[in-house]
Amino acid sequence: MISFDVVSLFTNVPPTFTIDYILDQLYPVCSTNCLQLSKSKQCVDCKRRIDFQTLLEIATSKTHFSFNNKRYVQHDGVAMGAPLAPIIADIFMAYLETTLMDELISLGVCEWHRYVDD
């Protein structure tokens, strides 16, 4: 049995990468490549992708927290206690698992279980 413990996951999740991954899963690359065009000339999916990207960036990157009556801006990862933090962390871990699963199997890992605590 091997234990893979992720320490301080929320503050170590790369939000930009995870947001790009989410967007790629929801809105695959446009065949007309209109993301570079002005918004009025973009297809509906590209507009939705950009709008959703903006919302995710605001919700994950533009966050702050308080400690000892002082306000701090979270520069790396997502802020602990942020409503989207567990979801973003879970999506990133799912990406890692799917990316690394073939390699783990080739190394002899027969079974994989994910345990999530607080």
TrEMBL record:
Protein name per its UniProtKB record: Reverse transcriptase domain-containing protein
Domain Reverse transcriptase: 1-118
Superkingdom as given in the UniProt entry: Eukaryota
